[in-house]
Amino acid sequence: MKLLYHFFSCLFLLTGYNLWGQHTSFTKEIKVIDSLIRYDHFEKALLKTKVLYNNLEKADNEKYKTELLELQFREAVIYDENENSSVEPLKILLKIIDEAEKENLHSLCCRIYLMIALAYEKSNHLELTDKYLNKAFSKYKVHNLKELYSTYCIRRSSYYRIINKLDSLNYFALQAEKYATRFNNERDLLDAYLLIGAYASKSKDYQKSLEYGLRILKYKKQQNQYHEIMFQYNNVSFKYLKMQNYTEALKYNDSAYIFQKKFNSQNEEYLPQIRYQIYEGLGNTDSAYYYFKQYHDNLQLLLAHEEKLKIKRIEKQYESDKNEATIKDKDRQMILIASLLAVIILASILLLGKNKQINHRNRIINQQLGELTKLLEQKQVLLSELQHRVKNNLQHVISILEIQKESADFNNIDELIRGNQNRIHSMALLHKKLNLTDNVKDIDLKKYITELSEVVIESYDNHKKKINININCEIQKISIEKALPIGLILVELISNSIKHAFKKRSIGIINIELTKTHNANKIYYSDNGDGFDFNKTTDKGLGLEITKGLIDQIDGTIEAKTDRGFELIIYFK
After folding, report:
1. Does pTM top 0.85 for this prediction?
2. Which CA distances in Å does 169 have to 2, 116, 152, 181, 239?
3. Contact (Cβ atoms closer than 8 angstroms) between residue 540 and residue 548
4. Which of 97, 106, 246, 547 could form a cystine bridge with 143, CB 3.0-4.6 A?
């Protein structure tokens, strides 16, 4: 059958592109190649790729440039899937990326950048991995390549797995699952299951790890990938073992044994390793001992087999050395020496050529690294300038208000200016939190609220009353767009409590909680003061109007209570 396939492939090559065009389209041929890659038929996929490439190149190299680049990209994918080395795929990808950029093939460029990132990840060049992931994300973002976002998330999650950032690993794996499901990308969906399961195992969430292990097993069975199903049965058995559910663990281990015998799967020596632990957990010491002995015997056989191979290599080397030692003829020695010299010269030439390629590649990489460094420096300068201007402008406003405060001679003006100062302080504090070394889009919410509360209390300078603020914040990070209105809302509420709530008390208590619910974020504010109805109040003060406007700004809904002091709950997305 294989010989017949090669015969027809060669016949296809001879008939040329015109004949091919009469029967099918390029898109259909690409789908066939992708299907062959998906089911690990790499030799057939490579042969079909090269045949199609040669036909298109002979027909018109310029006319079919896009198609030729797509075929070269798939050649790199085949080499990556079929070989352990990442050198050959990287060589092809670095060769075609400039042409793809020149032709404005944005989807292809994004896929190439992701493949380059994978190649560097395999060779443990993590800085370059991150660099090309950023390039891929930029392509996705600018050109709205939503169908490729799941692949980007897979690569980014795998990168965080290597550098051991578990929260980021889980976040991007979940994003990959979401987008792979939306765009029916089975390959990315399976990789997402693997990464989510890996995160769950590291977090010792064995129930979740089991759930995704069962999903992978179901997928492998649907695709009839027989060489992997036994391992997935054993993997699920191991997860049940970790959960101390020995009955279910034994059931899936039995399935692994049955499948191994039915399809003659290899590497069965690993099955007894889990099995003896299951029987040990069940208290069946006889069976545990039996399978432990089987595991031990299999391991010894494996070691003995490796030892035999090692001995054979030594014996072969010994015989070769012995045969060479018996060569005494001078002419034959000269031929041998000449051959050795020829090999050395050839190896030297190849080594020089390889070094030249490596140096050229390093120059390209260094040039790209220099460009990235230059762009980063420009970004830092611009951000620093922006922060400096914002800080100065806010300071000017505060100074002007301070002058107004000193010139005022009645309480309402003084209160108005103090309120405005606190509002501006909240904005200034928010911008102060931005740091060049941090993510400039997100704010440490707990630290921001804590410092902001202290600023408001100090602005009233009331030593006759003791004000205690208790803050509980479960939301670690939040965008600056959300942080600013939240800060201003709390400024108004704290100011209102200090001014009105504690007139009959010497000690005031304010509680602030920011938590996450199932569908929204929640702000809970309360004080132990006299209380008032937030919804029914007739007060038309500036602070109340600002508070309600800010709640609308974050699309918030409110729930006010007056049973004990003042309580206000705000829900927002």
Report:
1. no
2. 42, 20, 12, 18, 20
3. no
4. 106
**How, if at all, do strands 466-473 and 507-516 pair?**
parallel
d(C-alpha 347, C-alpha 353), whole Å:
10
Q: Identify the CA nearest to 201 among candidates 254, 241, 231.
A: 241
Cα gap 401→358, rounded to integer Å: 64
User: What does the mean pLDDT of the chain come to?
Assistant: 81
Helices (H), 164-225: 166-182, 186-202, 206-222
Whether 57 shows a pLDDT value over 50: the answer reads: yes
Q: Which two tokens stand for residue 134?
A: 């950023």
> Any bridge partners for residue 283, and if so which?
none
CA angle 56, 59, 62 (to 5 degrees): 80
Out of 17-26, 79-88, 334-343, 450-459, least confident range: 17-26
| CA 426/CA 525 separation, integer angstroms | 18
E strands of 378-498, at which residues? 442-444, 466-473, 477-479
Residue 118: count other Cβ atoms within 10 Å of its Cβ: 24
Give the model's pLDDT for residue 162: 94
How far is the C-alpha of 401 from the C-alpha of 74, rounded, in Å? Answer: 66
Sheet holding 507-516, edge to edge: 466-473, 507-516, 521-527, 566-572, 557-561
pLDDT score, position 402: 65
Cα gap 489→478, rounded to integer Å: 15
Which of 465, 388, 498 is CA-nearest to residue 432? Answer: 388
Distance CA 360, CA 352 (A): 12
Cα–Cα distance between 568 and 534 in angstroms, integer?
A: 8
Tokens of 511: 């509680």
pLDDT in tens, 474-519: 998 888 788 888 988 998 899 888 888 888 788 889 999 999 988 8
As a whole-number percent, the residues of the chain with pLDDT over 90 amount to 31
The torsion angles phi and psi of 336, rounded to 5 degrees, stand at -60, -45
Average pLDDT over residues 252-256: 88
Calculate the alpha carbon distances from 209 to 204, 205, 235, 295 in Å: 8, 6, 10, 26
Contact predicate 239/210, CB 8 Å: yes
